[in-house]
Write a structure and sequence with these properties.
By secondary structure, this protein is an alpha/beta fold. It contains twelve helices and nine strands. The protein has one domain. Strand 8, helix 5 and strand 9 form a beta-alpha-beta unit. Helix 10 packs antiparallel against helix 12 and helix 11 crosses helix 12. The two termini are 37 Å apart.
């Protein structure tokens, strides 16, 4: 029996339902071609699992996730996945969550279905755009999985009518990530974007309702298992990277005679190391107790 699994994560580009593609991107045929190409990439690189990743982002289809749209396309066009395991991640709302939540979904599936869960080995990420490579490989580095992470891109900007606009938008976001060294998208600006993308429970004019607030706050527990509870140690490590407290700086200063900048760097480096360690232990190696969603969620 193979003791390694090799998941291919695929980032959502909108929702597909009843042959209609709901997306902000005008080149729908390109997105459709990308979704149909997944099987070929999985076959060529011998991935064992396919992980459609993407949450509920479209106002006209608020109950259909980007992840669930991939199987609809594959069914309609009779795409043969050659028996590969499909694990949907309906939580992710951006590139960082595509990888983090996508791999967590794989880990939950593996631990729930095997007495001796296998380790995650080679990790693939298939993007509609080649120009997403920098952000995704830097994200893998910050998670400590860069040596087993493989990026696959489908199209260059020139292939789409709106490709230049898409690439310009990516460059603006990438510049921001580089300037802040935040490929994990932990800053408040990225949380605001995630909240804006989430559609269930909104009024017709897009404003938030109590139902929306509840759905958004509980989106990590919107299936049988609770991601936040299952991977609490990982999420605590991620949360710690958002801010550095006076107490943390004081502890660093007590051990060495550092200036403020050096102390900040030391504390940050320690936190990044901690994240990489717990991500490997819980998500990659599977040393975690999976928590089922409570009935109150």
């Amino acid at each position: 029996m193979n003791t390694l699994i090799a998941p291919l994560i695929i980032g959502g580009q909108g929702t597909y339902h009843d042959s209609e593609f709901h997306t902000e991107f005008p080149d729908r045929e390109l997105s459709l071609e990308y979704m149909m190409e997944v099987a070929a990439v999985a076959h060529r690189f011998k991935y064992t699992h396919i992980v459609p990743s993407g949450g509920f982002t479209q106002s006209l289809t608020p109950q259909t996730s980007e992840a669930a749209s991939f199987p609809e396309v594959w069914k309609e066009f009779a795409i043969d996945l050659e028996g590969r395991v499909v694990v949907n991640d309906e939580v992710a709302l951006d590139s960082a969550e595509n990888v983090i939540c996508g791999l967590m979904a794989v880990r939950i599936h593996e631990n729930a279905n095997h007495v001796t869960p296998r380790r995650i080995g080679r990790i693939g990420f298939f993007s509609q755009w080649h120009f997403k490579k920098r952000r995704m490989t830097e994200l893998a580095r910050q998670l400590g999985i860069e040596k087993s992470f493989y990026f696959h891109g489908y199209a260059h900007a020139l292939k789409a009518a709106a490709g230049d606009a898409a690439q310009s938008g990516e460059q603006r976001q990438l510049d921001r990530m580089i300037a802040t060294n935040d490929f994990l998208l932990l800053a408040e600006e990225w949380e605001t974007k995630r909240r804006q993308r989430f559609k269930p429970g909104r009024n017709d004019d897009g404003t938030e309702t109590n139902a929306f607030i509840s759905a958004y706050e509980n989106r990590f527990a919107n299936s049988e298992y609770d991601l936040l509870a299952s991977f609490a140690v990982v999420y605590e490590a991620l949360k710690s990277l958002k801010h550095t407290t006076i107490h943390e700086l004081s502890n660093a200063a007590a051990s060495q005679d550092y200036d403020a900048r050096t102390m900040l760097e030391q504390v940050h480096t320690s936190k990044v190391k901690r994240l990489k360690e717990v991500f490997r232990e819980q998500v990659i190696l599977g040393k975690v107790e999976i928590v089922k969603k409570s009935h109150a969620s």
